[in-house]
User: What shape does this take?
Amino acid sequence: MAKKLVIKVTAGADAPERCSQAFTVAAVAVASGVDVSLWLTGESSWFALPGRAAEFELPHAAPLPDLFDSLLAAGRVTLCTQCAARREITEKDVIEGVRIAGAQVFVQEALADDTQALVY
Assistant: This one.
């Protein structure tokens, strides 16, 4: 059975290098055939909204919209339920393919057999 990777990104524009690292690692893993689940929490929650990834800039980093698109195409992207609620983001607001789920689902994914969890 292939190993899985669960990545929780807590940073957004407030910590651009950490944010970019999370998306880059997730996208490289997806491109390598790894089963990836990326969780948007904290300030990264805003990237679940259309157009927000395009506003992100970091010199010498891959464009966030490209990384995000690769994750939507071949991985899973989840927005934290509580983080969404605090920002008044609903399922009708998010990019198609982004799900909203809570801590119980995160814990199930992170503790599954052959799974590595990373937090940025």
Q: What stands out?
A: The chain has a mean pLDDT of 97. The two ends are 26 Å apart (CA to CA).
